């Protein structure tokens, strides 16, 4: 990594930004990974390695699509209606796409001035400073 001046992008999750009883362990791990990103970025600065992180919100992966289908079946809704209601409960207009996370990764990988950045890609779900 040093020889090529590489880049590390940790994919973490927004659960580390705000505490939740339902996600206590995962949130704690996510918060620790954000701290680790900052520590590695500090070390990487001296060694020529970029280190940043992305905190995805709810992204429409296969896993989430399965959850949406289950909620739709349980509540006798269309998958679209179930997805809209689930997203609304999170305070976002819609779920993100894997492509949106990939574009954020490409940006951080190409940026020559991002070091130790933690980018929330969550549709506005996270409302912390």
TrEMBL record:
Q: Which Pfam families match?
A: adh_short_C2
Q: SUPFAM superfamilies of this UniProt entry?
A: NAD(P)-binding Rossmann-fold domains
Among InterPro entries, the record links this protein to: NAD(P)-bd_dom_sf, SDR, SDR_fam
Signal peptide extent: none
Report the sequence similarity comment from the record.
Belongs to the short-chain dehydrogenases/reductases (SDR) family.
Under which name does UniProt file this protein?
A: Uncharacterized protein
Whose protein is this, by species? Answer: Formosimonas limnophila
């Amino acid at each position: 990594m040093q020889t090529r001046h590489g880049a590390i992008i940790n994919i973490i999750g927004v659960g580390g930004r705000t505490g939740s009883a339902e996600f206590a362990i995962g949130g704690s791990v996510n918060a620790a990974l954000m701290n680790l990103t900052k520590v590695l970025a500090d070390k990487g600065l001296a060694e020529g390695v970029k280190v940043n992180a992305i905190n995805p919100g709810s992204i429409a992966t296969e896993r989430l699509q399965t959850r949406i289908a289950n909620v739709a079946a349980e509540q006798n809704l269309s998958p679209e209606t179930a997805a809209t209601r689930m997203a609304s409960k999170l305070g976002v207009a819609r779920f993100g796409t894997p492509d949106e996370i990939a574009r954020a990764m490409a940006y951080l990988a190409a940026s020559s001035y991002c070091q130790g950045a933690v980018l929330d890609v969550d549709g506005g779900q996270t409302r912390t400073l």
